[in-house]
Write a structure and sequence with these properties.
Layout lengths: L1 H12 L16 H9 L7
């Protein structure tokens, strides 16, 4: 969902690498992925 995309964008903004390939989701995305699967809505920061 959008919460996951927002979190990935924030992580990318803090990265020094121009490209990162993720084989598995980062631990920081565990809750947003679960919430997205449950249909929970988030308010953006």
């Amino acid at each position: 969902g959008n919460a996951c995309a927002d979190m990935l964008a924030k992580m990318a903004a803090n990265s020094i690498s121009p490209l990162v390939k993720l084989e598995i989701p980062p631990a920081e995305l565990s809750i947003p992925i679960l919430a997205d699967a449950w249909g929970v809505a988030f308010v953006r920061d």
